[in-house]
Structures are given as C-alpha cells and as structure tokens.
Amino acid sequence: MTRKSKSRSRRVVQASGNHNRAAKDPKKPNTSNDGSQRTYTILDYRLEKSSFTVRQNRKGDELCYEIDGDFSAPVPPIRDSQYLTKQQSIEIYRWMLLNRKMEQSLENLYKQGKVVGGVYFGLGQEACSCASAYALQKDDWLAPMIRNQGSLLVRGFRSSDIMMQYMAKADSPTKGRDGTSHFGDINERNVVSPISMLGDLIPVMAGVALGARLQGRNIAVMTYIGDGGQSTGVTYEGLNFAAVQNLGLVLFVENNLWGYSTPAEMQFRVKDLAERSIAYGIPGVIVDGTDACQVYDAAHEACERARRGEGPTLIEAKMMRMKGHAIHDAADYVPAEMMEYWRKRDPIVRFENYLLNEKKWLSSEENRALIADVERELEAEREIAVNSPMPKPESAVGGVYCEDGCHEIKPRYGMPKVRGAKVASGPRQTEAAVHLK
C-alpha cells in the first residue's frame, strides 16, 4: 500500500511481503541525493492490523475515554519464524513464563508489605522483552526499561536478583541502595542500568556502539522506549546521532497504547511510530509485540545489520500493557472493551498454543513439566530473596565516593584505533577534538 503526501513528494511504503519496485533492496531505504523521489520501505510483520478510535468524553463532572472499533476479530495465528529452531522457541517460551510468574510473585510480595516503593509490570509485554533480548549475542549490549525485566532474565540475571532489588535487600545488585529496576552489569553481562529520564538510554547506547567501533568492532546495542517517551527531545537527539554515525543501535519502540493515562491518539499524529524512522533515514519495522516469533525475527535482522556496520533500526512493537503504569495505578481509564480485546491476545497463551497445537513441539505432559519446573525455580528464588537480610545502616556510607581504581574503565574489544598516533595505556591529561567518523 502506497500513500502519497499532498505537500511533499516523499512516499512511505508499508509492506507485508509486497515491496515497491523502486527500492533496490526492500529492507533498506533509498537515500540517494540525485534529486529523485525518495522511497522508504517499512516492513510490517503483523498478521493482524487492529484499528480503534479512542475519544475523550465527559460524564457529569468526570472525563472518561470511549472506544470504537471491531472487537470481534479472531486472535491471529503466530507467524512462523524464519530463524528460530524448535529448541530456541521453547527456550523463549520458558523465559516468558518465568517473566510472568516472577512479576506475579513481586505483586504478592508488594501486597505483603515486603517491597520498598512501587513495582512496574510488563504484563502482556513478555514476548517483546524476552524474544528481543534473545537475539543478542554475548558481545552485544542491552539497556532495558522498567517493563523489560524479562530481558534481564534472558541476559543472565536471576529472579532473586530482581526481587531482592525491589525489596532493597543487602544481597541485591545495588546492595539495598535502590528499590526499583536501576541496576545493570557492565562487566559480565553487558547490561546498562535503566535511566529514569525517558529517552536518555538512547544516546548512552549510541555511545556504547561508538566506543566499540573505535576499538575495531561493530556490535549490536539494544534499548527500548515507550510510546510516550519516544516524544522526548533526547530520543530524537540520540537516534539522530546513531543514524548519522551509522551506529548499531536497535531501538524497540514499545507502543503499548497508553502513556500513563493518555491514549496514543492524544500523543502523536502518525498512525505508526515506525514512520518516524523516515526522518532519520533508517529502516523502520512494525511487529505484533504479542508474537514472539515476529519480535525475534525483527530483532535478529536488526542485530545482524548492526554487526555488519549498516547502522540503526527502529522497531515498533504494538501491544497493550495489561496493568496500570505502576502497581498503584488501577488503569480504570482504559475502556473495558479494549482491555478484553488484548487479554485474548495474551502472548504466553498464544505461544503456548503455537508450540503445543500448531507446531506440536511440546506435548501436554512436557508443557506441564516445563511449567512445574519454572514454578520450582521461582519458589527457590523467592526464598533466597525473602531470606536475604536488609542492609546494615553503616553500609550506607560505602560506595558514595570514588576510591582508587574503583571506576577504572578498560577497553573491552581492543585499544582504540587512532590514525597516526600511539594510544597510551593510562588516561589522557588533556582531550583534543575528536572526529567521530
């Protein structure tokens, strides 16, 4: 389908298998500067394109949202992956289950008064978090957001790490100094800690990719932004920098339809946030965020492109967050019809049906055993978290000021490549202007 703007000659091609002949490679935008009409291809992996209209209405003294659309459409099938094997598909399914059950345990711990602060859930987004992180290799980097706890599990953190972090326990990754998801591991797991200021992770990860390239490596760096956070200025600045410098940034825009209590229709005018990739001159992709196969394939292709040194990719994952902004938010503002529509598209239920009934890669007995194994693991991890002591008061003074060698940063992939100069092993006393390209 081709849409032509009345005010510009630029065209956007949304493709689902059929590509415009003007593009030499349907996965790459035509960025020629010969004055000809530019044609961009936005790949769309979805097997279902839902269309709803949300409007604001007043009932008495209260404002509410009403929704129009077809809610009777059947749940679409899972799209077969071009890359995943049977074993890999089952592994992603297990990560998704662990993600879901860990967050259910966190909710119970919160209600028991054992969590310090709030809890942010990714209910309904497990396929996006787990399948995307599964596409990364060991030398690649990840920077999750608050709803991407499944990606932390895939990257090697334990459920007890996440639960202890929310409980501010002494054995948590931050030793009790934080009660939310602000933790990472830049030494072993290549995970950058989430940043509360939305969008700031994007230039940070662009910098990670730049640092690797200066050391002679092209790597994939992955991070996420919500449909609300993608409107921030730093999102534009970071993604534009990555595009100009041709850095291997894989950005997942998680369009979960609500920016806190504001519907997507009141946040931006474009229908698909993937269209914003056009302004950066980079590929844009749309996936069903509740379909693990679609998410993985898009992430895999974007990561491979990054490792080849071909630059960033913007992937829009469309789905619905099935909880409020945080545990304190009951999400009463969401129309019941909309919630029920997406509840039928639960990513775990869909993937379970795909593995058991469509592919027949799991029998019912094997599935029950897998679920029981996840529950046993989670119960053991929960016990570790609950039994971990609270930090001692005097430990609060440690780690405040930098001590000798505590922040020594060594090249990960090799010494930086600098033309015509020898690179000293220690820090420089002065910094000259750096030409990035």
Word description of this protein:
By secondary structure, this protein is of the alpha/beta class. The strands form three sheets. The chain has an eight-stranded mixed β-sheet with strand order 1-2-3-11-12-8-7-6, sandwiched between helices. A two-stranded antiparallel sheet has the order 4-5. It has a two-stranded antiparallel sheet with strand order 9-10. Mean pLDDT is 86; it is low at 1-35 and 426-435. It has helices at 86-111, 126-134, 149-154, 159-167, 201-214, 233-245, 277-280, 292-307, 336-343, 347-358, 364-387; strands at 2-4, 11-15, 39-44, 52-59, 62-69, 141-143, 221-226, 249-255, 258-259, 262-263, 284-288, 313-318. The protein starts with a strand and ends in a 50-residue tail after the last helix. The protein has one domain: Rossmann fold (3-Layer(aba) Sandwich), CATH 3.40.50.
Number of self-contained structural domains = 1
The CATH class, by name, is Alpha Beta
**How many distinct helices?**
11
Strand line-up in the sheet with most strands = 1-2-3-11-12-8-7-6
CATH architecture identity: 3-Layer(aba) Sandwich
Morphology call = globular
Indicate the radius of gyration in whole angstroms: 23 Å
Instruction: Bin the strand percentage.
Output: 5-15%
In angstroms, what separates the terminal alpha carbons? 37 Å
Strand tally = 12
Major sheet attributes: 8 strands, mixed
Q: Indicate the percent of residues in helices.
A: 25-40%
Tell me the structural class.
alpha/beta
Q: Uncertain runs with pLDDT below 50, 5 residues or more?
A: 1-35, 426-435
- What's the overall average pLDDT, rounded? 86
What name is given to the CATH topology?
Rossmann fold
CATH superfamily caption = Thiamin diphosphate (ThDP)-binding fold, Pyr/PP domains
Name the helix and strand elements from N-terminus to C-terminus, one letter apiece: EEEEEHHEHHHEHEEEHEHEHHH
